[in-house]
Amino acid sequence: MIILSAEPTFAELFTPKLVTILREHYGARDLKADVVAGLTVAIVALPLSMAIAIASGVTPDRGLYTAIVGGFCVSALGGSRFQIGGPAGAFIVLVAATVQQHGLDGLLLATFVSGLIMLAIGLLRLGTFIKYIPYPVTVGFTAGIAIIIFASQIKDLLGLTLPGPEPGPIISQLATLAQALPTLNVAALCLAVASIAIILVLRRFRPHWPGLLFAVAFASLAGWIFGLPVETIGTRFGGIPHSLPVPELPVFSIEKVKEVLPSALSFALLGGIESLLSAVVADSMSGRRHRSNCELAAQGVANMASSLFGGICVTGTIARTATNVRAGARGPIAGMLHSLFLLLFMLVAAPLASFIPLAALAGVLAVVAWNMVEKHAFATLIRASRGDAVVLLATFLLVVFRDLTEGILVGFGIGALLFLHRMAQAVDVETGRPLVEEDRADSETGRTAYDSALATDRDVIILRISGAFFFGAAASVGAALDRLAEHPKVYILDFAAVPMLDSTAATTIAAFADKAHRGGTRVLVCGASAPVRHALLQHGVRRPLARFMPSVQDAVAAAHEETHQRAAE
């Protein structure tokens, strides 16, 4: 016998994995492993954090603030042992659009508000519902984001000079870039191609080496030695600061909150999806299990903390989290150390960042964009079914050519409608006469067989309804019941194969029972679970319209008794 455990307590749901790890006799060997893993992840996160910040329309130091402050909070308070928090490529488009519309102050406020929203989602235990985002939506969304990221890097990849700001819509953006092709900088293109080649070659032959860091270091050294005329972090941004800024609250007003609320909601939705996907990846690699609501609450705190220090949106990052697991991390301390190593870089080696060519960082993001596209999953979903292909392509095309939030909402809406349609098609109504062959099939599948004597009883009809009986199937089931040409003395409605029933379906059954009652036919309902029976009773399926019986056998016996009594009369 399987005994189900009681519902987890609040403390069990929201205890950070750091506390769990420390309770498990965390020792010196574990700390050594976490130091190595934290340093490995920091080496990967250093160029990525700056590249993502630049692509998002802010200065590179904002990316480092995000990884240091936000990443530390995610690891210290989160519900995953191996999650690495920081700026993510998926946010580039949203952050850039927010900066363009509301400025840096608006971005910081939107990040803070999104943190409040994610904290509330976690504490209210709503994180479970994020898993209902259809897989084709996530694949299409990620592929669309990758296309936009790559398009945003073409300017720096080619070293182009534009007469004005780069347009936001991708069609206008590509047209503007095409017009600027005569300004191509060969040196920038060579550094970008060399950076991409180094990353790919090292990934192929030395996968454990930090290819991103080697690529950026090589490009920086080559640009400095040969005095190449390329744009660097120093020439565009003046370098990065030597320390963290003093924390301060974002500029706050009710009007400003209303303005940035759509962006904050988008940040919270995308951050929740991205962080939980990353936690699931870590679970599959490590065999552990994360606490989703605790993770979302930690992501909320991390986003609020990041905005206080001038950082941008924080989320769980799949590539850095996977690197953390592969590097042998034992727990959240590795993620906390990764943030401290990044802080140490700012304190000691910040001047070196001025020599990093923007073309090299664009090459890094080009590789990131290529890796973001789940190419095998995309092709599989296109072939899998017409419905999945529609959801995937609708999400992908809307993300690329319209809007990220619109792409997610429309994709989710189409996916939900397709799911409801498929569920409605799975609902079936089987008649109970003749039963000889059907009884044999039912017995073979473990379902309760009907009394074969009913095959010759023209006064009793059994109707078996199977599947989730809800509003999507109510019309078809109602039509099937209305088409019954026979008028027996007893209808037996078997609900044993109905796992759930909503108010629309219950109303349909009530209408059928009322019609049968007015025609002088008794209705017996059997096999209904407690929730299904409760819903039927609430909508009027009760005496004198119908009687409830515990099983088909009891209903059959009652039907025989009913018909015999009527015959005797």
Give the arrangement of secondary structure elements.
Layout: H1 10-14, H2 17-23, H3 28-55, H4 60-77, E1 85-86, H5 92-123, H6 135-158, H7 170-179, H8 186-205, H9 211-225, H10 233-237, H11 254-286, H12 292-308, E2 315-316, H13 318-326, H14 333-349, H15 358-372, H16 375-384, H17 386-401, H18 404-426, E3 428-431, H19 436-444, E4 460-466, H20 471-482, E5 490-497, H21 503-518, E6 522-526, H22 530-538, E7 547-549, H23 552-568
Parallel strand pairs: 4-5, 5-6, 6-7
Antiparallel strand pairs: 1-2, 3-4
Helix pairs in contact: 3-4, 3-9, 3-13, 3-14, 3-15, 4-12, 4-14, 5-11, 5-12, 6-7, 6-15, 6-16, 6-17, 6-18, 8-9, 8-15, 11-12, 11-13, 16-17, 17-18, 18-20, 20-21
3D structure, described in words:
64% of the residues lie in helices and 5% in strands. The protein is built from 23 helices and seven strands. The strands form two sheets. Strands 3-4-5-6-7 form a five-stranded mixed sheet, sandwiched between helices. Strand 4 (460-466), helix 20 (471-482) and strand 5 (490-497) form a beta-alpha-beta unit.
